[in-house]
Specification:
293 residues; Phosphorylase Kinase, domain 1; 7 helices; 22% helix; globular
């Protein structure tokens, strides 16, 4: 069993070290959850890019509450996000003590809206700029409701490239983001993998502890969804500890129109499709001894 010390996690007003390791699950008790093939395209960990377009079109979103600042751009007068993403974003901004500094620039976009933005940017900025900063219609994470563009209120905010780099509130936001389930989706050095230039303002909600693991391993979402496949059900599972809970993560390949997905018992379980070929299962518990149960 290999153990790694990970990113610092906030627990109340203090930080604790996260640890990651792999384990052989042995004969673990489990139940089976039957998932449909369409559910591969749903969940917090869906990979969306030009090779893996949005397949689940009906998104459940909520409008930003009044206490979250939002920029007043004509392109997006009403901003909304997927419910869990929205609630965690509010908690993150509050933890940064930046409710009067950080503003939301963009959230959920329909396919029609994404096409309008793409075509408008193409006409005004040209092909090279558009290819670097605007995803093709159908290939934008904004269409999931799980992506958010943020900026600093005291600076002039461009809708496509809002200012959100440097120290201060943006630096605190970047440091705490993994604790609340967010990743900077397009980072410097990952352009060849993601197909998008570095965007310090663009954050994607993937949930905890996945964001923390991605930060620790230096992985973008394309790399992480591939990495999780190294931990198939029943063979080798990925575990992550943060001092409060133990998270057990494994991959189950979709087998057809229906897949019976094993869910380890003894904890709280969540699942997500990867928008490719299978499901990522996350089971959390408070007692690490249950791993051997």
């Amino acid at each position: 069993m290999i153990r790694e010390t990970g990113v610092k996690h906030r627990s109340g007003n203090k930080c604790v070290q996260g640890q990651m390791y792999s384990m052989k699950p042995g004969n673990r008790p489990f139940i089976e959850l039957r998932l449909q093939d369409t559910e591969v395209y749903q969940g917090l960990l869906v990979l969306v890019n030009r090779d893996h377009p949005v397949r689940h079109q009906e998104q459940q979103t909520e409008k930003l509450p009044g206490y979250i600042l939002r920029s007043m751009h004509a392109e997006e007068p009403d901003i909304s996000l997927e419910r869990t993403c929205l609630h965690q974003l509010a908690a993150l901004i509050d933890a940064c003590e930046a409710t009067d500094k950080i503003t939301v620039v963009s959230g959920y976009r329909s396919s029609r809206k994404q096409r309008q933005i793409y075509e408008s940017t193409l006409a005004s900025h040209g092909e090279a700029f558009t290819a670097s900063y605007v995803a093709l219609p159908g290939a934008s994470e904004h269409q999931t409701g799980l992506a958010v563009d943020v900026g600093l209120l005291d600076r002039e905010l461009d809708y496509i490239r809002p200012s959100f780099s440097g120290e201060g509130a943006s630096g605190v936001f970047r440091d705490l983001a993994p604790v609340y389930g967010f990743i900077q989706r397009y980072q410097e050095g990952k352009e060849e993998v993601t197909g998008i230039a570095c965007e310090p303002w663009h954050y994607r909600y993937v949930g905890y502890p996945h964001a923390a693991i991605m930060e620790q391993r230096g992985l973008c979402l394309e790399e992480y969804t591939g990495y999780v496949k190294d931990f198939p059900w029943g063979i080798r599972h990925l575990c992550y500890e943060d001092g409060e809970r133990v998270y057990e993560i494994y991959y189950v390949k979709a087998t057809g129109e229906e897949t019976d997905v094993p869910i380890v018992t003894g904890g709280s379980a969540e699942w997500s499709g990867n928008n490719q070929d299978g499901y990522i299962i996350t089971v959390s518990r408070t007692d690490r001894n249950q791993e051997q149960a």
